[in-house]
Amino acid sequence: MFLEQRIYTMHPGKLPAWLALYRDIGGPASSRTLTPLIGMFTVEFGQINRVLFVRGFDDIDERERGMGRRDADPEWQRFLKEGRDSGALMAQEAKLLKTVPFSPLQKVGQPFERKVEGGEMWVDHRTYDFHPGKAQAWIDAYRDLGKPVQDRLLGQLLWFAVTECGPINQAVFAWAYSSLGDRDKRRAAMAADPGWAEFQKATAPLGALKQQTTMVLKPTPFSPIR
After folding, report:
1. What is the pTM of this model?
2. 162 HSE (CA, 13 A, CB side)
């Protein structure tokens, strides 16, 4: 499955108005013409005044056909005009990702089954950059040694994917928690677990990781994942 991840950066103070435009006009137009939205989130920690959203494609060529349908939709053109008039957008970034076999998210239209307790959701969105040629060995070790520990101790894995277009040699994945305190307690338990020490011992000689970046996100009220 392909995932298109977009991050839009807004001028300070203008994100709420842009989100309302997307909720009322842009989102419905996209849903009519493209595949369903998977999730839409605002950045709480990281570079703020940003919205991150994810859409999936089982057939990447369907994206192009859908974009053509969307561009011909009068309501989409209305959304673009009102968005430009708002002066909200500062920058846009797009990545094309591909899910790995152990990612929970695998198909367009797959229903989201919430496993996080309580009424809130906080998402730890992580991007790991690898030295060329070393990503797969780390991902295999994570699948076999690291993920079983995290499945026991962390929150809910939402997706795990690698970049196809954009900065390559990256893994992009997201874990959901009921609160920031929940995240902190669970990650402390993970760090103290002997199985996690085994994973770190196995991956250290690989010299695979170059950089790790994390953002904390919150789903918008109209995000399918929330």
Report:
1. 0.94
2. 12
